[in-house]
Design goal:
The chain has 154 residues and is an all-alpha fold. Helices cover 66% and strands 0% of the residues.
C-alpha cells in the first residue's frame, strides 16, 4: 500500500512549499512539466510523496494526460489523497511564491527556475551530508558549482 509514505520531518516547510509550487505549475502547464522533467529528476524532490507525484506527473505530461488525474491513484487512501490534493490546490500559494521568488508578479519563468535551483540545491546538500566516498563528494561539489553558474533551466 502507498499509505506508508510519510512526510519526512527532515524536510523543512519552505522546501515543501517550493515543491508544491513547482508541481502545481506543472499541473497547470503540461508543456512546462515536460521541460522540467528534462532538468529535475523525481529523486531530487526531498519528500517521498513529492517524488512519486513528480514521477507520475512527468509520465502524464509526456503522455498528454491531465496531471491532476494522479489524484485517482490515491482514492483508496484518504490521507494520501488529501496530501496529494493539497499539492495540486496550492494555486494561491504558488502566486504568492511567484511574487516572492521572482520579485514581481507574473514572472513565473523566473519563479520556476528559482524553485528548480532550490530543490536541486537541497538535494545536493542532503547528498553531501550523506556522502561517504571522496569521489562522490567531489562530484556533488562540482554539481553545486554548476548550479550556481547556471542562469536558467527552462
Amino acid at each position: 500500500s502507498s499509505g506508508q509514505i510519510n512526510r519526512s520531518s527532515a524536510v523543512d516547510a519552505g522546501l515543501l512549499k517550493t515543491q508544491r509550487f513547482l508541481i502545481s505549475c506543472m499541473s497547470a502547464d503540461p508543456g512546462l512539466a515536460v521541460k522540467i522533467s528534462g532538468v529535475l529528476m523525481p529523486d531530487e524532490f526531498a519528500d517521498e510523496l513529492y517524488r512519486e507525484v513528480a514521477r507520475k506527473g512527468y509520465t502524464c505530461a509526456e503522455n498528454g494526460t491531465v496531471i491532476s488525474s494522479i489524484l485517482d491513484d490515491y482514492r483508496d487512501d484518504s490521507v494520501l489523497q488529501g496530501r496529494v490534493a493539497e499539492i495540486f490546490n496550492s494555486a494561491e500559494e504558488a502566486k504568492m511564491y511567484s511574487e516572492d521568488e521572482a520579485g514581481q508578479a507574473g514572472d513565473k519563468k523566473a519563479a520556476v527556475n528559482a524553485a528548480i535551483v532550490r530543490i536541486k540545491k537541497a538535494n545536493l546538500d542532503r547528498r553531501g551530508r550523506e556522502a561517504t566516498d571522496v569521489n562522490e563528494l567531489q562530484e556533488i561539489i562540482r554539481q553545486q558549482a554548476e548550479l550556481t553558474s547556471k542562469k536558467s533551466y527552462i
